[in-house]
Design a protein that fits this description.
- The chain is of the alpha/beta class and 444 residues long.
- It contains twelve helices and 19 strands.
- A hairpin with a 5-residue loop joins strand 11 and strand 12.
- Helix 1 packs parallel to helix 9 and helix 6 packs across helix 8.
- The longest helix is centred in the N-terminal third of the chain and has 16 residues.
- It starts with a strand and ends in a 17-residue tail after the last helix.
- Pfam families: GDI.
- Belongs to the Rab GDI family.
- InterPro entries: FAD/NAD-bd_sf, GDP_dissociation_inhibitor, RabGDI.
Length: 444
């Protein structure tokens, strides 16, 4: 390892693989290392044997579940917004050519003990059982305003300055009730809590527009979400392939990767197996940087294997359900994600459902119950709690650029926000995704 690299990337989680690919495309010489023998890190997709080995060591998977390699079970399950930032990154890097996607069948929100389809347009709002007749009219007016809003055309502002007006004020101008605000903020704008209400309205309006734009990204889709065939583990491997095309080097199964620092306290290389590779800076997940990240929360997830779709979802093979915090007396939302053999992530006739949330008590398993109660009978269930870590500094001083953990949400927007923010810190410039042509067909 006598060569010197621009960057050494530690860990093959999705965030690290995206960064590796972006830096390679930008012309940097990248070495990517991982202590594990497989791609994905804590965001890996596991076969049935790997799943049992991780959560039920010493036990064999039941033969009734079929072939172990027919399963690709995500540890961090997330859908992709069809018009969102991850899609733009996939197109920008051309990684899209390595992947096949399939649309998600259903998007639902929980209200007063029942799940309802999420209305995402003025016409859907008129049909939704979520609202009374008069509330539907008010919601329709709100959606029309949002859909027509154009930052470049002041005529669409209707006298409102969304950079100064709070989202709470904008909702109030349309006289929307608390339950309507709840599903718009959490199931459309995809906020994890209610802090957005007292912030400027413009970012929320953009998020609602993104939901709507994603919904109509492909003809005939029922939700704004897509998901790769064979699971999310395909994403890190595809970005690894991209990096290799641009000259990046990958080394798996490298034990004891240790960051080396110069006399100024700056990362200048990584030591493994008695050899040191030199570099200008190091990127990686928090586990490779002892003392340079802190635990800011915990995420609880339940992985459930079932032989049926989630009740009330019109037999959907794949679905997201958002349980807004207020509906179950919590400070943070609960998310339900389900996919099936239709996405090639389970054996024939099997469904994999996940329930995830930010931990608020000393009994995380109980906090998942509102989501678990929606699933119907479960054949096998695994619960794991993961630390959610954040770096202590931005990396500009010590040349250690550290990713955040994966939150409880079942969509990728916050994940990609972290990646793009890291890219800006590393390169000093933002990745321009606004002028991409999104006319490529990416759905399988």
């Amino acid at each position: 390892m006598d060569e010197e690299y621009d960057a050494i990337v530690l860990g093959t989680g999705l965030k690290e693989c995206i960064i590796s690919g972006l830096l390679s495309v930008a012309g940097m010489k990248v070495l990517h290392m991982d202590r594990n023998s497989y791609y994905g890190g804590e965001s890996a997709s596991l076969s049935l044997d790997q799943l049992w080995s991780k959560f039920r060591e010493g036990e064999e998977p039941p033969k009734t579940l079929g072939r172990g390699n027919d399963y690709n079970v995500d540890l961090v399950p997330k859908f992709i917004m069809a018009d969102g930032k991850l899609i733009k990154v996939l197109i920008h890097t051309d990684v899209v050519k390595y992947l096949e996607f399939k649309a998600c069948d259903g998007s639902y929100v929980y209200k007063q003990g029942k799940i309802h389809k999420v209305p995402a347009s003025d016409m859907e709002a008129l049909k939704s059982p979520l609202m009374s007749f008069f509330e539907k009219r008010r919601a329709r007016n709100f959606f029309i305003y949002v859909q027509d809003y154009d930052e470049k055309d002041p005529r669409t502002f209707k006298g409102r300055d969304l950079t100064r007006m709070s989202m709470r004020q904008l909702f109030a101008e349309f006289s929307l009730g608390d339950d309507t605000v709840d599903f718009i903020g959490h199931a459309l704008a995809l906020y994890k809590d209610d802090s957005y209400l007292d912030q400027a309205a413009l970012p929320t309006v953009k998020k609602i527009k993104l939901y709507n734009d994603s919904l109509y990204r492909f003809a005939g889709t029922k939700t704004p979400y897509i998901y790769p065939l064979y699971g999310l583990g395909e994403l890190p491997q595809s970005f690894a392939r991209l990096s290799a095309v641009y000259g990046g080097t990958y080394m798996l199964n490298k034990p004891d990767c240790e960051v080396v620092y110069n006399e100024n306290g700056e990362a200048c290389g990584v030591k493994s197996d008695g050899e040191t590779a030199k570099c200008k800076f190091v990127v990686g997940d928090p586990s490779y940087f002892p003392g340079k990240a802190k635990v800011v929360g915990k995420v609880a997830r339940a992985i459930c294997i079932m032989d049926h779709p989630i009740p009330g979802t019109v037999d959907a093979h794949s679905v997201q359900i958002v349980i807004p915090q207020k509906q179950v007396g919590r400070r943070s939302d609960i998310y339900v994600f389900c996919s099936s053999y239709a996405h090639n992530i389970a054996g024939k006739g099997k469904y994999i459902a996940f329930v995830s949330t930010t931990v608020e008590t000393s009994v995380p398993a109980q906090e998942l119950e509102p989501g678990l109660s929606l699933l119907g009978p479960v054949e096998y269930k695994f619960i794991h709690v993961m630390d959610y870590e954040a770096p202590l500094s931005d990396g500009k001083t010590d040349k250690c650029f550290i990713s955040r953990g994966y939150d409880a949400s079942t969509h990728f927007e916050s994940t990609v926000d972290d990646v793009l923010e890291m890219y800006t810190r590393i390169t000093g410039k933002a990745l321009d995704l606004d002028n991409l042509s999104l006319n490529q067909t990416i759905e399988g």
